[in-house]
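tool_call: predict_structure(chain=1)
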Amino acid sequence: MAKKKNMKKDTMIRNFILIAATLCLVGFLYYRFHSPFFSTYHSYVDADVILDPGHGGYDSGSTYNGILEKDVVLELSLDIGEELEANGIKVAYTRMSDDVSWSDVVQEDLQARVDISNHSSAKAYVSIHTNASESKQGKGFEIWSYTRYAENKALAKAIKNEVLDTDMVIDRGIKNASSLGLYVLKYNDKPSVLVEAGFLESDHDRMYLMNPRKRKQLAKAIAQGIIDYLQNNEESK
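tool_result:
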């Protein structure tokens, strides 16, 4: 009798363990495929630099009199990429058109961009944006980075130095991204910066953002800053 009770008890324990393990597996799989903290971008990207034109698709970004940030930064990013490739730098983009492959959930959008960078051979990630202010009187060029990391700071400085040599921009400096917790920088494994190339609301900034010749000049400077960083980083190894 005691033996039968022990067998029944053992069976109950095994069933409990089996049920618990099944629930854990189901929970893990759900979290794995629904959480933005797990990779949604699985293909390995062979590139030296990841360029991330901000926003796109469902997300216009900042706007001014019908001008959309997503359009401006895409053109600028493509110009930067063209200049980098002309110098033998392999470039990959998070997007090359207004079509985006990710969902319209903001966190999943941001994570998809980070995944592309983290699943790559890139030595630098540069996100391109334009700025906006509540007063509608903002102007100038700034770079955001987690400056406590030496490589991030070096990348930001290299870009800034080249851009200031153009004499086009009003310098707003290098900003510490830890004050904002910028997602695409915070969760990025690569040396990374976010460039705010200017304010769409500023007559001064639109002069170089919207003029193709001036925009290409700015793009060349940003690209040269990236090249300077890559070369200096390689020499220091």
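agent: Helices lie at 2-34, 69-86, 106-118, 150-164, 183-186, 203-209, 212-235. Proceeding to next step.
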